[in-house]
Write a structure and sequence with these properties.
mainly alpha
Amino acid sequence: MSPSVITFLDFFGITVFAISGALTAGHKRLDIFGVMVVALITCLGGGTLRDLILDAHPVVWFEHTSYLLAGILAALSTFFVDRLYRIPVRVLEVCDAIGLAFFVMTGLQKALSLGHSPEIALVMGLMTGVAGGIMRDIVCNEIPLIFHKEIYATAAIAGGTLFLVLRHFQVDPDIAMLIGMLTILTLRLTGIFLGLSLPAFLLSEEKKE
């Protein structure tokens, strides 16, 4: 995978996750500073946690400060656009789905490039894709999407696993990554628009009802 492709994936993922974070903060009526903080937590939180666990220094946005700038610009743009035109919640969900697909793949690539096993790479890809969203929802006093909404982590695991399988069988890395991302995005969007989700835990009282 060429460095230019990885850089594009990073910027794209950061932008859409920053938009996702800004929209979540906006729906909570936070001020512009709160919107920026939540947006940056969303778009940089997963990658930061991944790099700290992998002992990959410097943390990615320390080394590439343009990532930080991209997150800030995306958050500010969303803040002002949303003041003129109320952006639907569905846009938030779609942006989150796109960010998930891109970040899972970049997390996988980062772990593999550091010599880690496919199993560890899959966990790091999942962490990169979902940790920022978990932090976002906790800060905004929401139950994280990954724990109660439509197919989410399952989509990330499926796409990441497929990428690793294709890589094992010597499929071109770019094609394998594209297939992995499309799998994640398709499964997540299917969950959003068709309302598909994993079974939820029910208490005995709820079962009787």
